[in-house]
Structure formats: structure tokens, C-alpha cells
Amino acid sequence: MSEKCTGQCQSSPTNNDLNNNHIDSDDFGGKFVSTFKVPKMDCPSEERLIRLAIEGISTTIGLQFDIPSRLVKVFHDDNLDEITNKVQSLNLGASLESTSESCSKEAAKARKLDQSNKASEMSALRWLLLINGVMFLVEVVAGVIAQSAGLIADSLDMFADAAVYGLAIYAVGKTVSLKLRAAHISGLLQVILALGALSEVIRRFIYGSEPISSLMMIFGGVALIANVACLFLIYRNKEDGAHMKASWIFSANDVIANVGVILAGLLVTLTDSRYPDLVIGLIISLVVLNGARRILQLKY
């Protein structure tokens, strides 16, 4: 049984709204609002998965994301079962927390917040895309020169970030089918690159390698600086828009991966062993591959 709202409830969308493929999902209220707890939602990849899955439903649906609290608020009509099935099919541990009638004040606040931050969010997303795209190229070249599986794998993490930010920019105003196609393309590219990095780890394990620890630490440090710059770009809006909250956590997680590469380089020096480099390369490659798997599982 859903809880009643004490204020005025939202009206249903008009036929023109339902037929408009360019509606921003955050602009729709719906008769009800349901909150889902999603324990495994900790970066933009999971947010995009949920958006693409739910936007495949024919009825226009509004979405609000609280990444730090792992919560998704869904404004909808009489289709909660279908929404629940879509969210839970992503295997992110989602569970329905509550459902109540949607209030006009609540939806209006969501719309106002979204509109006021949309311009600054888009500007930040473009900078994030540029930084991560450039660092992908820099790290992959440095990884080849340094014979470092860790640097090569970390470059893939940068590519995964760039793909997410690029998809977020591309998706604005696009139909669900185009969004899904773009997501699948980015997922396939991530799979190809991740498998390439894994094969490189295996090749270096079998035939040996001599990673240059100084280059690992230098370019791991450059990547760290780049991701710290991303954090500064996001900081002003990190509590405002859904993408900004997610991007803040995503870049913070990348900082951890960069520190891992630097630490692996230090251990290579101290132990005179290539295994720390192989281990960090394996871990980052598997993380990227798992993210790509989730994207490719998306369906209409």
C-alpha cells in the first residue's frame, strides 16, 4: 500500500509529452514516487545502466539519483512492477524502499534544481571527457614504453571514464534506442581493450617483462594529478546534480587506482620484481571488464 502525500499530487503526462522523445527524464513528475536502494551503485556507469534500463519503458519516467546514499527516486504512474523488474535485472542488489503519491512541490523542486545545474554540469562533463581522453592516450603510450601492465590497465580505466562522460553528453535529447546503441558501442570497446590488457598481463607473466618503475610512478603521478583536477572541477556542483555526485565518486575511485599504480611502481623498485605491476594490471583490467559486461547486458 502506497503512502499518501499531504500536498497536491502531480498530474499525469499529456499525450504530447509521451510522444516527445526529447523530454529530459528529470523533468517528469508522475502520480507516484518510489525509492530504490541500490547497494552496488557507486559511479556513473551504474547510473547510466539504470537510466538506460528504465528509459526503455514506454511510459515517460522521472529519475533522481543520490549516489552517495545509493538511492534512486523514480517518479512514475501505474507501472511499478515493470520498473522494479528492470532495476533488479541489472544485478546491482536493488530493493524497493518505499512508494508514495508524488507531490507537485517535490517534483517542481527537482525540475528547478536540474535546470539550474544543467549548464554547469554539461561544461564540467566536457572537461572531464577531455581530461580522461587525453590521459588514456598518454598512459597507454607510457605503458608500452615502460613495459607496464599496470599503466596500460590504468589507461583503460581512463577510457572507461571518458566513455561514460561522452555517453552522458551524447545522450542529451536522444531517443532510447540511440542511447542504448551508444552504450553498447562503448561497452564493446571496453571489452576489447580490457581483453587486450589481460592478454598483455598473461604474456608478460609467461615470457617475462622488465617494467620501468620510474616511469610507472611518474605517469601514475600525472594520472593522479589529472584525477585530482577532475575532483576540483566537480567540487562546486558535487551535491547538486546527479551526474556531478556520481562523477565525484568516480574520480575519487580513480585516484585510488592511480595510487595503486604508483605503489606498484615503488614495490617493483624495492623488490626488484615484476609481479606488483602484473597484479595491479590484472585488478584494474578485471574492474573495467566487469563494468563493460554490465553495459552489454542492457536491453530495451
Q: What is the structure about, briefly put?
A:
The chain has 300 residues and is α+β, with helices and mostly antiparallel strands. 66% of the residues lie in helices and 8% in strands.
Explain what the structure shows:
The chain has a four-stranded antiparallel beta sheet. Residues 1-27 have low confidence and may be disordered. The protein is an alpha+beta fold. The protein is elongated. 66% of the residues lie in helices and 8% in strands. It has helices at 15-19, 44-55, 80-88, 104-146, 149-171, 176-207, 213-235, 242-271, 275-296, and strands at residues 32-37, 62-66, 71-76, 95-101. Strand 2 (62-66) and strand 3 (71-76) form a beta hairpin.
What's the structural blueprint in terms of helices and strands?
Blueprint: H1 15-19, E1 32-37, H2 44-55, E2 62-66, E3 71-76, H3 80-88, E4 95-101, H4 104-146, H5 149-171, H6 176-207, H7 213-235, H8 242-271, H9 275-296
Antiparallel strand pairs: 1-3, 1-4, 2-3
InterPro entries: Cation_efflux_TM, Cation_efflux_TMD_sf, CDF/SLC30A, HMA_dom_sf
Keywords: Ion transport, Membrane, Transmembrane, Transmembrane helix, Transport, Zinc, Zinc transport
Main location: membrane
